[in-house]
């Protein structure tokens, strides 16, 4: 099925700055007169997922890709009224209303874009790249504050699950990227220009 409303995919490794960049892009597009809707592939984790022995939650298999594809197709046609949400702390799934009138869809996330490349290719694939040291620091701050996790558990997951998962599933996306982000503030304009050239 062809995409009627453009789909922009923001991907990259854990704590690379995908969410922040997606918000900045959405705000910039809003100022240009667009009405983007931003969704996160993290909201499509399986609620009954049993962590993989090697990857834990850092694997495509942890994502309900059928639900993700289904809602993206509805978004691309301008029809989706409620979208899925996933609580990282409680592992609960809920739904929230979608404001009507969007003309761009921004999907941000590490797992999920892999499936889109074959089944629903995005109009623009953006890969956010950040050093491992900075990403670990960000993850420590985020997960201790927002997910009530201990430093030891975060570091264990980083070394035992996150890095193998990134190597096998996320980093290969870089070779398919239309734009690679090294400096978010500077490269934001590059993404906007690429979008403008496609219209």
Question: What report would you give on this structure?
Answer:
The protein has a single domain, classed as 3-Layer(aba) Sandwich (Rossmann fold). The chain has six helices and seven strands. Strand 3 and strand 4 form a beta hairpin. By secondary structure, it is α/β, with parallel strands linked by helices.
- Major β-sheet profile: 5 strands, parallel
The CATH H-level superfamily is P-loop containing nucleotide triphosphate hydrolases
Helix count? 6
- Write down the CATH class: Alpha Beta
Helix content: 40-55%
Number of strands: 7
- Looking at the structure, the CATH topology is Rossmann fold
Question: Ranges with pLDDT <50 over ≥5 residues?
Answer: none
Average predicted confidence as pLDDT: 94
Q: How does the overall form come out from the CA principal axes?
A: globular
Distance between the termini: 20 Å
């Amino acid at each position: 099925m062809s995409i009627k409303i453009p789909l922009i995919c923001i991907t990259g490794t854990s704590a690379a700055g995908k969410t922040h960049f997606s918000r900045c892009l959405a705000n910039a597009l809003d100022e240009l007169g667009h009405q983007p809707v931003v969704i996160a592939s993290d909201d499509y984790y399986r609620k009954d997922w049993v962590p993989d022995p090697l990857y834990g939650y850092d694997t495509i298999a942890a994502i309900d890709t059928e639900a993700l594809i289904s809602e993206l197709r509805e978004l691309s046609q301008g029809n989706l009224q409620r979208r899925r949400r996933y609580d990282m702390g409680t592992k609960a799934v809920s739904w929230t209303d979608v404001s009507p009138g969007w003309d761009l869809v921004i999907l941000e996330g590490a797992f999920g874009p892999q499936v889109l490349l074959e089944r629903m290719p995005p109009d623009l694939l953006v890969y956010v790249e950040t050093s491992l040291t900075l990403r670990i620091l960000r993850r420590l701050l985020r997960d201790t504050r927002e997910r009530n996790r201990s430093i030891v558990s975060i570091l264990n997951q980083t070394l035992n699950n996150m890095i193998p998962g990134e190597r096998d599933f996320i980093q290969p996306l870089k070779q398919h990227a239309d734009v690679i982000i090294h400096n978010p503030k500077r490269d934001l304009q590059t993404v906007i220009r690429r979008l403008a050239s496609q219209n």
